[in-house]
Design a protein that fits this description.
Chain A has 149 residues and is an all-alpha fold. Helix content of chain A is 73%, strand content 0%. Chain B is 17% helix and 39% strand. The chains are: A mainly alpha (149), B alpha+beta (327). The interface between A and B is large, with 50 and 80 residues.
Chain lengths: 149, 327
């Protein structure tokens, strides 16, 4: 793999977005190429800085405001019977949308139950003592797994 | 003629390849205990979103006494010392807990592990970057099968010490990276690696494990037969048996399976938990997963079992169901 091709894929590599084989090929190139390695470090630092920007907090009454304006607009534009039917359809659509979004959330974000924490810590401890493990990493991974409950 | 010789000379390094990865790994086994060193390791763990960063001060006197002190991160305040087959742990202001050490330290790798590793993974070695100012050999471990984790290890070229690691999970996501930021090849002050004195030998505290040599002895300790899975993911075999101390006395079974790199742990839970009846004939197993692990809960012989591993549901659920299918 050459530098030009590597650099095109670096951003995906930095966020874990490549297939395993592409990652392996790219990692192999990075091992021997200080220039590309430096570029990756820069990308990772940039990503870390971007991640420090807090998520915007929406005002709690935002939806109420939007909803009441929608209602007012509907009432003005439609005859009474059509308005209530349309509103039911709008709410049903919103509920369906929420269900679709929740259902399509990646399984990775479903966390395990509280009572499983000690088992996870023990599992990661054993894994870190196993082949090619590093006990210090096992302590940290166990701590993260426990804290993610 | 001159051109041919030059071409052959240029081709030779590619034919000869890098160092033999198995020899590199063999040399590295136990280095953390036999090479005196002090330093600081930086560890990053990704469980979704931004990484968690931890700093750990590590020391070894080169004669089997080691110390890990978590300065920051999710386990901040944890201090672990090991010597003579024992391990002492203290989390913050909690009292010390002494247990039998479950491993041999970094790169625990016996002959069976190595055979499984070579059977299931491709190993490559080459020159690595400088880590903490030291020259390294990098060993890349990639699975021969789909949906298995992979690992890269940077090993000190002179001493075999493990200086950096990078781990990807079964789905190819980067989950952890560790790097020594500072390393000195000198023994720490003796007091730093001297375990706390005067801890009486006590019954195994709740949750602690005791290694057991065989299934028969584990069944004797728990007082029941083990409904071990009849189906295992390809390449996996039983690695170890453990007894886990219960809160009210007695033991529950823990069994680990390995393919040389990846580990699956099977935990037996208390009696009451089994009444929920997961994974019965046609019934659902409970499956939860995140980047770090998949957990499948199943009921077998009236008791609840957790199957935990860095593998997908497609691999772990059939294993769990094969336990539930037993009479």
């Amino acid at each position: 793999m050459n530098c030009e091709r590597t650099k095109r894929q670096l951003a995906d590599y930095a966020v874990g977005g490549l297939s395993r084989w592409r990652r392996a090929a790219l990692a192999s190139h990075l091992t021997g190429c200080p220039e590309c390695h430096g570029e990756l470090a820069l990308l990772e630092r940039t990503a870390a800085l971007l991640a420090q920007i807090p998520d915007p907090v929406l005002p709690g009454n935002l939806w109420n405001g939007v909803s009441s304006r929608l209602d007012a607009a509907e009432r003005a534009a439609l005859p009474r019977s059509q308005g209530s039917t349309r509103r039911v359809l709008v709410y049903a659509g919103a509920v369906a949308l929420v269900l679709v979004v929740v259902g399509s959330l990646p399984r990775q974000h479903r966390l395990v139950g509280q009572t499983e924490a000690p088992y996870l810590v023990t599992h990661h401890m054993l894994a870190s003592f196993g082949a090619l493990g590093d006990p210090a990493v096992g302590d940290v991974v166990g701590g993260v797994a426990e804290g993610s409950q | 003629m001159k051109r041919i010789i030059l071409a052959v000379l240029a081709f030779l390094p590619a034919v000869a390849g890098g160092p033999d990865p198995v020899s590199v790994l063999r040399r590295a086994v136990g280095a953390a205990q036999t090479v005196a060193h002090v330093g600081e390791e930086e560890i990053r763990v990704w469980s979704g979103g931004q990484p968690v960063v931890a700093k750990v001060r590590v020391a070894s006197d080169g004669r089997g006494r080691t110390r890990r002190e978590h300065v920051s991160g999710p386990s901040a305040g944890l201090l672990v010392m090991s010597a003579d087959g024992w391990e002492w742990r203290r989390a913050g202001n909690q009292p010390w807990q002494r247990t039998v050490s479950l491993g041999h330290g970094d790169l625990g790798l016996d002959a069976a592990d190595l055979a499984r590793l070579e059977a299931n993974y491709r190993l490559e070695a080459g020159d690595g970057e400088l880590v903490a100012g030291r020259a390294t050999t990098v060993v890349t471990v990639t699975a021969k099968r789909r949906s298995r984790p992979s690992r890269r290890l940077w090993l000190d070229r002179d001493t075999g010490l493990l200086l950096a690691t990078e781990a990807h999970n079964y789905a190819g996501h980067l989950v952890s990276r560790s790097t020594w930021r500072r390393l000195e090849l000198a023994p720490p002050p003796a007091a730093a690696v001297t375990p706390p004195p005067g801890l009486p030998e006590q019954p195994l505290p709740f949750g602690c494990l005791r290694r057991v040599p065989s299934q028969a002895e584990l069944e004797q300790l728990t007082g029941r037969p083990l409904p071990l899975p009849a189906v295992l993911p390809d390449g996996f075999a039983v690695h170890s048996y453990y007894a886990r101390a219960c809160r009210r006395g007695g033991f529950n079974a823990v069994v680990t399976y390995s393919d040389g790199l990846d580990l699956i742990t099977l935990f037996e839970r208390g009696t009451n938990a089994g009444q929920r009846g997961y994974g019965g004939p046609g019934g659902p197993c409970r499956v939860t997963t995140n980047v770090l692990q998949t957990v499948v809960t199943v009921t077998a012989q009236g008791r609840e079992w957790l199957v935990i591993g860095d593998l997908g549901q497609r691999d772990l659920e059939p294993m769990a169901r094969s336990m539930a299918a037993q009479p």
